[in-house]
Amino acid sequence: MADFKTHTLVATVISGGLGVAALATGLATPADAFCYWLAGTLGGLLPDIDSDESLALRIVFRLFGALVAGLLAFYWMTTLPAWQVAGLACAGYLLVRFVLLALFARVTVHRGILHSLLANLLFGVVAVLLSYHLFALEVRQAWGIGGFVLMGATVHLLLDEIYSVDLAGMRIKRSFGTALKLTDWQQPGLTLLLLVASLTGFWLSPGASAWVQSLDLALPALSGMDALAVSDLLAWLQKGWQALRAV
Ligand SMILES: [Zn+2]
């Protein structure tokens, strides 16, 4: 199993690289790219929130607590005196950070259903919904954030699986096959619940057409670049082959 540091580092580097690529191809503004980078990094931590002692669990619940506190303050700030709003926000944060976290830790099992591709899909959809409905971001940005969360979480599962192969000794550890899975088939009820939740999430999400359109705009530029790179590579290989035959 890859540790927290490895997961954070890999997720940061990959989502940073992809964020820059999105910026370079005109798919994202600098602000979008920054949000995508954060979303990908957060996605890289999400599958381990089912591990009771993990730093990922505490980070995610701190963020969630801050979100709840912010929402409570935003909702009540015009109707209640400031000290009550502050008290309410603090209470909301503490409730999420300690009570909800303890409940969550009690009901989840490490490497259970939340450490699966199906759960990643749900994380992505929830990110789209929060970005669009709660933070009032544009459709394109909301789907971009959801996509990066999904990508980060999937990289996490892949990384755990890679780490279950002992590369030095070429042995396969017992944990092989437990990290990257479609779902936890031992839990058919929970699988169905996650599937229904993901589909409901998709149904509540804004249409992805705006995002697809911007991809359409960026693709010609991207494929032009690819064609160039491929022809360069072929020419280089041809040269190498000729040089080899000449020897
Ligand atoms: Zn993991």
Automatic annotation (TrEMBL):
InterPro entries: YdjM-like (IPR007404). The chain crosses the membrane at residues 12-39, 59-77, 83-105, 117-136, 142-164, 185-205. The keyword Repeat does not apply. GO terms for molecular function: hydrolase activity. It comes from Marinobacterium rhizophilum. This is Metal-dependent hydrolase. Keywords: Hydrolase, Membrane, Transmembrane, Transmembrane helix. It comes from the Bacteria.
